[in-house]
Amino acid sequence: MPTGTTTRIEIGCEEGGGATRLTALGASGLLRARALPARDGVARVALVQTAASLLSGDHIVMTVDCGPGCRLELVEVAGMVAHDVRGGPGGRGYAVR
Questions:
Q1: How crowded is the C-beta side of 50, counted as CA atoms within 13 Å?
Q2: Is 31 exposed, middle or buried (0-12, 13-18, 19+ CB in 10 A)?
Q3: Cys-Cys crosslink for 57: which of 4, 19, 81, 97, Cβ 3.0 to 4.6 Å?
Q4: Model's pTM, two decimal places?
Q5: What is the pLDDT of residues 34-78, one digit of tens each?
Q6: 59: nearest Cα among 29, 19, 15
Q7: How many Cα atoms occupy the beta-carbon half-sphere of 44 within 13 Å?
């Protein structure tokens, strides 16, 4: 029975003085969340792979919690590919608040 890796990403932000600032930034598993320089008051976060690629059976759980007036840009800088090596589906779950 194939098993996979669960990657968890958590991002939080709040608005203050016309700009969005990150209040939480964490990840474990096959991706890391890295803060990028803000642009025009928009908080920016890059998702960076820590392993060669995602495989069948791997799961990504992402939670983004932003307050009123927040602006957040998420980018994936490496052109992520998920390979169907083991012949099963991967999983994903998103919570955006």
A1: 13
A2: buried
A3: 4
A4: 0.79
A5: 999 999 999 999 998 887 667 777 888 889 999 899 999 998 876
A6: 29
A7: 11
